[in-house]
Structures are given as structure tokens and as C-alpha cells.
Description:
180 residues, alpha/beta, Rossmann fold, five-stranded parallel beta sheet, 6 helices, 5 strands, Flavoprotein-like_sf, flavoprotein
Amino acid sequence: MSKILVxxxxxxxxxxxxxxxxxMTEGIREAGHEVETISLKGKNLKFxxxxxxxxxxxxxxxxxxxxxxxxxxxxxxxxxxxxxxxxYGLSGQMKTxxxxxxxxxxxxxxxxxxxxxxxxxxxxxxTPERAVSSLQGWIDCFPKARLAGTLFCGGLNDAGEAAENxxxxxxxxxxxxxxx
Length: 180
């Protein structure tokens, strides 16, 4: 049984990302894993200032929610990020969080497998490419980690539309069941 940390980066209430993240998490639990979900909704995340003090101390000089989230990330066996696609990339709040994970780089982080669930109004297969590439760039800084899987759920326009789409909910559930 793995300790899996799911980080939902959508800030919109009743978002498609939120519904799909819940369904995916149900699949993770059904597979027998211990899972914790953190939503970035309502969290205080400051921008990284690039001071690099964290490279020496493994602690960020900024005091906000990214500090305790980074500690949760460090101790998880597996990470699962969920993000809406904005302008064919990660949400800004996800990118901000990834930047703030810099203190983990020199640490003895536990995570090995990283997964990504992306959600967008567009449904072309190329839609999530830049989001996946951006997360891959972050993962590349952690030699013991790898991108273990992605799921793209496109064609979802209106808030909550995913909740009525049994096919896409089942895809998210099965994706969750496959997370290790």
C-alpha cells in the first residue's frame, strides 16, 4: 500500500477538474492505497523569489501554505496532480506550487511515481502537451522520480459538466485504480 498525495489545483467551485479528481481518488482508494487530497483552493501561495536559500537549508524563507504542502509532497510515495488546462499549459497556481517545491530538490524526498490528470474545454489530443512537458521539466529535477502516467479529459466546457459524463468519470476512476 502506497501513501499517495493528490494535489488538486483548480480554484473554481464545482469544476470539472474537481469532479474528476474525486472520481480518480475513489479509484486510488479502491485499489487499496492510503490517499490524501490537498486542494489549492483557498491556499496562500506566494511566488518563489529565486533567492535559493532553500538549496542550503531545505527550507523556504517565505511563510505560507506551500511550506507545509512541500513537506507532504516530500513524504508521499506517489504524487498525483490534477490541473485545468489554461492557454494550453498548467494552471498558474500549479506552476507556482511547483516553483515553491525547490527546497525538496536537495532533500531525501520519498516520491517516485508522479501522475497528471488534465482537464480542458479543448479536446484535441495535443491540448495537454505543454502541461505534461512543464510537469516533466519539474520531475527531471528529481532523479529518483518519473512521470508514471497521464490522463487528459477534454471537451468539458461548463462547470460541473464532467459530473454528468459517465464515460469520462469512468476513465478518471480507472486511471486512479492504476496509480501505484
